[in-house]
Amino acid sequence: xxxxxSEILESINSDKLFLDDEQKxxxxxxxxxxxxxxxxxxxxxxxxxxxxxxxxxKEGDKGGWEGKxxxxxxxxxxxxxxxxxxxxxxxxxxxxxxxxxxEILNSAYHVVKDEIKICGLNLRNPVKDMxxxxxxxxxxxxxxxxEDYAGIxxxxxLDDCKVSNGAMRLIPKSHTILGWPDDHVDINQKHPNEIRxxxxxxxxxxxxxxxxxxxxxxxxxxxxxxxxMNIKNRKYDQLLNYKKFLDNDQxxxxxxxEKYLLAVRAEDSDQKIDSGGSANELRREYLAKxxxxxxxxxxxx
Length: 301
Description:
- The chain is an alpha+beta fold.
- The chain has a single domain (5-299), classed as Jelly Rolls.
- The chain has helices spanning 5-12, 21-30, 39-59, 93-96, 102-112, 242-245, 248-253, 256-262, 279-299; strands spanning 32-35, 82-85, 116-126, 151-157, 169-171, 195-196, 204-208, 212-214, 226-233.
- It has a six-stranded antiparallel β-sheet. The protein has a three-stranded antiparallel β-sheet with strand order 6-5-8, with no helix packed on it.
């Protein structure tokens, strides 16, 4: 039985797919890595495009609500202005295959430096004239320089990404800054150090969860489907409780590597909540407290 992430990596890797020293240095310093022409994406891109298109048409407004079904109302989108899909691990084997990609797992293991697990696999596709976001992080902020990083997010591009359809804005090296971006900058303004992630379909961008980034407006309306794979230290909650949401037949059919990575084995601890670890929820709490403090100061003047 496989019981360690290192054993998983040994099982799925060929030597050339371990990160080399230069890649590790780039990930440590810049906070992100770009992988082009991966074997899995070259083989499966067309299928990923086809199945995701079918699921978007089939699910409509219900797309993306996995783990948060209690908040869904007819006609209410998971995200206004974007097509969303959630729970992709259990929807087609081509999505499941993404979770054992060596490039992504090795990057996650290097950042976390501890046991890891898959915490989410979702898709986002902003529609025309939508998709603009404020600068944010996809994890929770570090409070000390010696505090470990929680994980990574892998952006898996199913379409060519250009400025015209909203290429992501990203601020290199920002993952080392403590606290929320809100503590340091106006998150609704263009950052002077931001770059745009312009890539071809099939490209994977792996980023530290603490890197500052933001979506941009899809001006052209051309499809910009991105699958986001969230991987964290094994001690944190998953964005979707796979032990609960994968049915018994699906769980049984998983390989030993997949069971470990999804934390669905009997020996894996049970997650109490359906969906956890949302950086957006934590940030809303932070902003509410910040506004409350600001209002209190204003009232006392």
